[in-house]
Nucleoside diphosphate kinase (Fervidobacterium pennivorans), 147 residues
Amino acid sequence: MERTFIILKPNAVRRGLIGEILKRFEQRGIKIVGLKFLWMTQEQCEKLYEPHKGKPFYEELVNFMMSGPVVAVVVEAPRVIEMVRHIVGATDPLKAEAGTIRGEFALTVTKNLIHASDSVENAEREMSIFFSPEDLIEYKLDIQDDI
Ligand code: RTP
Ligand code: MG
């Protein structure tokens, strides 16, 4: 079983898309094990985007990510890192396939609605910025034996 880390970016919250986006993971049978509504601090933002420091889009990205509250989520399922990124779609909404979250609801690269970790190492690193181990809840989904 694998876990990954997701952030619904500030424009997803402002546009009222929290339910729409979480629904897409729930309907796949992906289990939510951690959920927080928060306004990111500069420190959290710098840690999250540490690998992108120095890139041309860094400042704009960090400012945007702190422009309003976000929803931080940890989810669990087999092969969930790849599955979540498949549901989210390509970074550039122009290249995101129809039917993906970005392909249906996003317009620009910076404001592409959602962040999702891209590897086991990054998932662990990123979720630990926002969640302590006791924030992550173990339980059985009703549908777990049927997916
Ligand atoms: P994410 O990390 O947010 O799930 O998205 P990703 O892997 O598809 O994209 P990544 O390359 O990790 O970039 C992180 C975020 O930076 C913004 N970005 N802007 N203007 C640009 O060229 C550019 N490139 C990346 C996006 O908001 C992207 O989600
Ligand atoms: Mg990334």
